[in-house]
Amino acid sequence: MTELILATKNLDKIIEIKSVLDNLNFKVLTFRDFENFPETKEDKKTLEGNAEKKAREIWKKFQIPALADDTGLFVDALDGAPGVFSSRFAGENVTYKQNREKLLRLMKNIPLQKRDAIFRTIIVFISQSGEKFSVKGECKGYIGFEEKGKNGFGYDKIFYVKNLDKTFAELTITEKNKISHRGIALKNINKILKKFNKNF
Ligand code: ITT
What pLDDT sits at residue 14? Predict the structure, then answer.
């Protein structure tokens, strides 16, 4: 079976990505399958830069095709913040909840019609030979005034999907993957990955 490593230590992402990639017949490997799995410093200014850095580092170290996801939540009223810094919005090594609370605090006086936001994901795939492919996925929505829902991770409890008026945390993983930034990016990368899968 063709092997593919997910260049992330984020278990929540891994669950979402695997639920889509499993249909493609890859042997999907994660950090749990390796010792000394490196932690990439995300110091690039763009999602694309960080996604490529993560994927390339893993590909270089293990010589296996690698796939990385870099995601950001861009809020209009905050000039695009937290954006590329979404994982450390409230500081280094903070919890998802601390990030959500900071965002809600900063936006507490902003009216509903000015709470638009967008989730963006860039997925980068580095093939066995080192060739790079990158795809994008976006999902438009708005930030709520308080947490709602029990599923998902990160900002899911406060991100309302436009035209659905439910937070991501109120959706099942299958429902989220159908419309989310990551789900769309995965659909786009699937088309590319199929060409690299010997089993197809
Ligand atoms: P890796 O770099 O190891 O992949 P990370 O958690 O650092 O994991 P990102 O830099 O892409 O990943 O982090 C963006 C942050 O945005 C992440 O920590 C979550 O808080 C949030 N996030 C990412 N995807 C999300 C999603 O689908 N729903 C809600 N929040 C999400």
Answer: 96
